[in-house]
Amino acid sequence: MGRKNEDITIMVVPHSQKPPVSFKLPLLFLRGVGLLLIFVPLLLVGFFNNYSSAKAVFPELEQLRIDNQVKSELIGQLANETQMMLDNFKRVKTLEIELLELNGMDESIVDQDSPTGQVDPPYFRAYLETREYTTIDRTFSGIEYLQQSLPEQEDRMVALKENIEEQQRRAAALPSRWPTWGHISAAFGWRRHPITRMRDFHSGVDIADGNIYGRQVLVTGAGRVTYAGTLGTYGKLIIVNHGYGYETYYAHLSKIRASVGDLVTGGEVIGYVGNTGRSTAPHLHYEVRRWGEAVNPVKYLP
Q1: Residues 174/221, Cβ–Cβ less than 8 Å
Q2: Which option is the CATH number for 183-300: 1.10.510.10, 3.40.50.2000, 2.70.70.10, 3.20.20.370?
Q3: Pick from 227, 299, 209, 302: nearest CA to 264
Q4: Among the residues of the chain, which ranges form H helices?
Q5: Looking at the predicted structure, is the pLDDT value of residue 193 above 70?
Q6: Most exposed residue of 18, 227, 256, 262, measured as fewest CB within 10 angstroms of its CB?
């Protein structure tokens, strides 16, 4: 036999003389209503709790959104500054090439600076634009390039500075100025000696003038005095070693104004013209020696 539906009758009895009213409701319906009365409040309580929690998080999410926007702008600025550094790096390299050209040095060293797998700064922007790079990627790539390139660039600039300084020292040491004022009265080379009248090799030039006696004698390049005294036919003599194989002799002086070991610079007064040693008249005998061999001083005079 099938189970009969169970019903519940609800009777409402008024206080007046009106007849009572009855309602017959299925038990299943009442159970459903009861369940709703239990679970709906629970659901509402859970909803409001979740809403309150979410509402508390909203300010944090908004702050995170603002922070992300600020960081994005900073990353963009950093990317621009990185590119500016790359452009400046390019200008430094261009300046390096110009300095090499001005000093007559080999430019091939500037082609050795690019790190493996990298490209030169002039083409770095185009290189990045051809790839699927984000702003952060471009920034990190630029910084990585600079980190690899700058130490090498610094080493090259230090080497360039040292080379330029060496060239400056060489130029300063070169005997390239007149040791005193006057005219050349006896040239470099073979001649008839004015005293012995025999054929003689003149290892320097004689500089004379009508009133040259006592005139200042200037060292013709930077160097160190290696001799200052009287030496045979030279009379009172000063010898200066300029390095790089160069020596200069200043002979027949009336007075010496330098001592052995003195460091002298081009144009410094080291003595005075005289007539000491084997000399027929006041003049300066001036020699230039290259690796110990006498060479024509006129080659170095301006």
Answers
A1: yes
A2: 2.70.70.10
A3: 227
A4: 27-102, 124-129, 135-173
A5: yes
A6: 18
